[in-house]
Amino acid sequence: MKFESFSFAPEILRAIAECGYQSMTPIQQQAIPAIRRGEDVLASAQTGTGKTAAFALPILQRMCDNPKETMPSNTRTLILTPTRELAAQVADNISAYSKHLNLTVLTIYGGVKIDTQSQKLKRGADVIVATPGRLLEHIVACNLSLSNVEFLVLDEADRMLDMGFSADIKKILQAVNKKRQNMLFSATFSSEVKKLANDMLEKPKVITVDKQNTTADTVSQVVYPVEQRRKRELISELIGTKNWQQVLVFTATRDAADKLVKELNLDGIPSGVVHGEKAQGSRRRALREFVEGKIRVLVATEVAARGLDIKNLEYVVNYDLPFLAEDYVHRIGRTGRAGKTGVAISFVSREEERTLADIEKLIGQPIRRVTVPGYEVGSREVLLKQIEKRRSFAKKQQRGDNAGAQMIAEKNMDGRRVKVGKVSSTVKYKKIK
């Protein structure tokens, strides 16, 4: 289906063509008509499915149908995102869609001077894309009023809840204009997301375009078993021997990310890093150099898992598996986007085999394993049995300790001593006066 089918304004159609869009994706085909009709929308779709255009294009059209002057310290459209990277990406996309319209788009997030944002907010903006925490700061400081919001979008709602923004979102919902159209987009429909939807949406159009927690068919997945201490060697060898040119790598911690970037650069592989302790300017510079091909590897922590949109990205490497199995889907969703193919590689140490099993159960398929000569590790099956045995033993020991802890105030038959507790196998007594 073509975008022309929905009678967008010529200015919007022109921008769509300049973005290189041709046919609509499934989420766009279902969401655009509902939003154009003014319905609330609850949509579940995996990353790379065209979600931003699905809500932005019909909102822009509705704003064109009912033009209004920009009011100081106000906005007509508010879009909430979990991370700075995603906020910047969404704002860039909307700016591209509205480049031939007389509309202003503003991003609001932490990591930059709040005074500069305050000055821009006082002038007002037609569309504001914000992270919840910084937005609340401006609301409390009276830099922004939400009394005239007509369109409210929560993008990556499940991620915002996972990151602890639930209380912030509730405060924002209390401050925003009650007569508005709501759109909630989420990769998954968890119980928390459903509760938020019940509180926020009114008779929503429910859209699900993909089976939850599935990975795109365009992404080829592979696992490399390797000892934790040898992961750094392996990634340098693979990048060098296979001549990978653009690789996004995820680590578990910021410290691990910094160390890996340092080692890769020493190995002659130009690399940059993106994580929460880096200044926003440094993060944007690293991303720009990565996109422009000035560096071959961008190392990131979970903060970037849903916030990066890199066209034609071929390789995503899980240097460390994510703590949550669901985050694996979001990480590898950075590649294989918009119909392009990509490769997702995961380095799995002996200690991460259980996490891998959880991921394979979640996505409903085993992941192909490739052993690199010289990096072999022990048998996976034996290791999983050992892990299960240790877990079972720990549960039995815990049950035994709990039972012992309950044996208090039991009076002995001679009536002179009372059993007051049990620690491991030792029974303690106290004298009765």
Quick tags:
single chain, 433 residues, alpha/beta, Rossmann fold, 3 domains, seven-stranded parallel β-sheet, 15 helices, 41% helix, globular, Helicase_ATP-bd, hydrolase, helicase
Task: Describe the overall structure.
The chain is of the alpha/beta class. It has three domains: 3-208, 3-Layer(aba) Sandwich (Rossmann fold), CATH 3.40.50; 219-378, P-loop containing nucleotide triphosphate hydrolases (Rossmann fold); 387-431, no CATH class. The protein has 15 helices and 17 strands. It has helices at residues 10-18, 26-36, 51-65, 84-97, 114-123, 132-140, 157-162, 166-175, 191-200, 231-242, 254-266, 280-291, 325-332, 353-363, 380-405, and strands at 41-44, 77-80, 105-108, 127-130, 151-154, 181-186, 205-208, 219-225, 247-250, 271-274, 297-300, 315-318, 342-348, 368-369, 410-411, 417-423, 426-431. The strands form three sheets. The chain has a seven-stranded parallel beta sheet with strand order 3-4-2-5-6-1-7, with helices on both faces. It has a seven-stranded parallel beta sheet with strand order 10-11-9-12-13-8-14, with helices on both faces. Strand 3, helix 5 (114-123) and strand 4 form a beta-alpha-beta unit. Helix 2 packs parallel to helix 3 (51-65) and helix 13 packs across helix 14. The radius of gyration is 26 Å and the shape is globular. The N and C termini lie far apart (89 Å).
